[in-house]
Amino acid sequence: MTLELQGIGVSRGIAMGRAHILFHNQPDVREYLIPAFAIEQEVDRFLDAIEQARQQLKSIRNHIPANAPSDITSFIDTHLLMLSDSSLNKIPVEMIRQRRCNAEWALQLQRDALINVFNEMDDPYLRTRRDDVDHVVTRIHRILTDQEVAEHEIPDGRLKGHIIIAEDLTPADTVLMQHQGIAAFVTEHGGATSHTTILARSLGIPAIVGVESVRRYVQDNEPLIVDGETGIMLMGADERTQNEYEGRLIAFREHISSLSRYKSQPTKTRDGKAITLLANAELPEDVTTISAAGAQGIGLYRTEFLYMNRLSPPEEEEQLAAYRDVVEGMNNQPVTIRTFDLGADKTVDGGRHLNQTVVTNPALGLRAIRLCLSQPNMFRTQLRAILRASAYGKIKIMFPMISTMNELLQAKNMLEQCKHQLDNEHLEYDHHIEVGAMIEIPASAVCAELFAQHVDFFSIGTNDLIQYTLAIDRINDHVNYLYDPLHPAVLRLIHITLEAGKRHNIDVSMCGEMAGDPKYTRLLLAMGLEHFSMHPNAILEVKQVINETMLDELPSNTLEIMNAADIVEADALLELINGSSN
Questions:
Q1: Burial class for 528, CB neighbours closer than 10 Å (0-12, 13-18, 19+)
Q2: Which of helix, strand or coil describes residue 579?
Q3: Does 99 appear as a known binding residue?
Q4: Residue 349 contacts residue 117 (beta carbons within 8 Å)
Q5: Per-residue pLDDT averaged across 432-442, rounded?
Q6: Are the C-beta atoms of residues 176 and 63 closer than 8 Å to each other?
């Protein structure tokens, strides 16, 4: 009998193979007192474990193919940076000396303190960085407790063609197992924005997350079928079902292979409407991947990486160097830089805020543009660096989480102050640099008509817009099933924003994950979206849909989807839209 389990499909593709159940044996960490004469020996034991963990990660990084996407190595580099951060390599040492406790316990106490801070973070993407803390700490704990190297870190080929079943996976786990040729993975936990799922998409590994208690239902070596798009995992499939999925697997591989022909083609619909495809980026190294994908620029450049895992904010010259590298690497293609989207609990103080009062609703607190305006010196430093980088290429500035006109005008006023400073210092910058606002909360979408009169462009951040509109946390396993881009409230807010942009003749782009999902492309085209920004790996699939679409042949009732009474009706209308213009 066929048993079907449903999770969240986070990386497209079909996989058929036998299960390999991965159990992470968590180290048993207990506190015990260290004799005074042995304290420095305990410190040395801890520092030796840090160094061993560093060597393990370097070995993993060395196994990554040279042509792999840059975000793969960036995940490993993030873990290496954390090992060098004082919050992990110095504070536990102080605890060992002050409390006379064992290294495992000191590390565990610091881990708990750091996790508490990350749990209060506002932005879902940055909040998933707590996983990185856990992954690094677990690696050190394994070394301290003399546990053997995990089986999936031994490259003996035993995992080739297998579907990994696990509670959760680290980015390092994923890289190592992809190198061994795994077919797919299914986990009990995880969200659409975790590092591991982003990595799975980069590596092209079909993946499903959020399948509760999956290890209770699957037996080791049991034949499985995984559909990374629908989030369905099948056990005990009959011959007819197996044949059906084998056909779908062949078709999917042929489809992916055929996408390369679109790389050199212009992006336009069959009836001649030109569309702009941009890429989202977070690190200067992403430029290589973006250029290879055929993007026409960067529609969202996140700057938070400059502020994380450090004791003090980055100085102007450091930021200028990072932004200049990106803009010069893009060869005069536009780069839209978002000012830092941090929260009050994510300041760069090396942990001095660990004892701050817990914020009840951090997502509704001091974050993004609100924090920028409350930290004028840090904000001006970034604005000056972005302006100066604009002398080296086409740059646009984008303010995140604008909710009031006062915020927008204050931010623009501070930008003008920075321009005057640079003029007085005779430093070059683009005097006509474009300024935009992110539309990512309902208030800004409803008031888009007002904001459009004061900016040069909008960018719709659907990830946050959907969450704020529907009051759900998309990385919370209990409510993420409610995360629905087709909810009529979400579509109406997008429609309002697009119409405001049209009336005031300003560009409107979309940089959330909805923009990179090909099943929404025709709907967004019908709504009037002309500028898409997405993960580089999604560009060719979206481009194919655009280039094969006749706008005039889309159903005349397309926008009725905004009045759909339920998910079933909305999905049926979307299927009708996607079935046209073929």
A1: middle
A2: helix
A3: no
A4: no
A5: 97
A6: yes
- List where CATH 3.20.20.60 sits in the chain: 268-351+361-579
Strand runs (DSSP E) across 188-275, as ranges?
A: 207-209, 223-227, 232-235
Buried b (16+ CB within 10 A) or exposed e, 67-79: eebbbbbbbbebb
Distance separating alpha carbons of residues 459 and 441, to the nearest angstrom: 12
- All residues at 6 or more sequence positions from 52 whose CB lies less than 8 Å from its CB, including other chains: 143
β-bridge partners, 293: none
357 pLDDT above the threshold of 60: no
464 has binding-site annotation: yes
Q: Using alpha carbons, select from 458, 534, 551 the residue that is nearest to residue 496.
A: 458
Which residue type does 448 have? A
The CATH class for the domain spanning 3-24+151-242 reads alpha beta
Nearest CA-CA partner of 281 in 460, 508, 511: 511
Strand ranges inside 198-270, DSSP E: 207-209, 223-227, 232-235
Residue 338 in marked binding region: yes
Between CA 491 and CA 105 the distance in angstroms is 50
Q: What is the per-residue pLDDT for 169? A: 86
19, amino acid identity:
A
d(CA 403, CA 572): 34
Distance CA 25, CA 142 (A): 9
Selected residue with higher pLDDT from 119 and 465: 465
User: Among candidates 187, 260, 194, which has minimal Cα distance to 228?
Assistant: 187
All residues at 6 or more sequence positions from 360 whose CB lies less than 8 Å from its CB, including other chains = none
301/285 Cα distance (integer angstroms): 12
- Which pTM value belongs to this model? 0.73
Q: What are 156-167's pLDDT values in tens digits?
A: 678 899 999 998
Active site residues: 195, 511
* Sign of the dihedral defined by the CA atoms of residues 246, 247, 252, 255, in that order: positive
**Contact indicator for 372, 334 with CB cutoff of 8 Å:** no
Structural fold of domain 36-144: Enzyme I; Chain A, domain 2 (1.10.274)
- CA-to-CA distance for 449 and 502, rounded, in angstroms? 10
Decide: helix, strand or coil at residue 454: coil
Q: Cβ of 215: how many Cβ atoms within 10 Å?
A: 18
Strand pairing category for 276-281 and 298-301: parallel
Q: Who contacts 10 (Cβ-Cβ below 8 Å, separation ≥6)?
A: 190, 192, 197, 200, 201, 207, 208, 209, 228, 231
440 is in an annotated binding site: yes
CA 171 – CA 169 distance, rounded (Å): 7
**Res 483: pLDDT:** 79
Task: Confirm or deny that 253 is annotated as ligand binding.
Answer: no
Where does CATH 1.10.274.10 sit in the chain? Answer: 36-144
Looking at residue 393, the DSSP 8-state letter turns out to be S
Q: Are 77 and 64 in contact (CB under 8 A)?
A: no
Render pLDDT for 361-397 as a digit per residue (tens, 0 to 9): 666 778 789 889 999 999 999 999 999 999 999 999 9
Task: Return d(Cα 225, Cα 228) in angstroms, integer.
Answer: 10
Numbered ranges of CATH 3.50.30.10 in the chain: 3-24+151-242
Q: What is the pLDDT of residue 354?
A: 35
What's domain 268-351+361-579's superfamily in CATH? Answer: Phosphoenolpyruvate-binding domains (3.20.20.60)
In single-letter form, the type of residue at position 356 comes to: Q
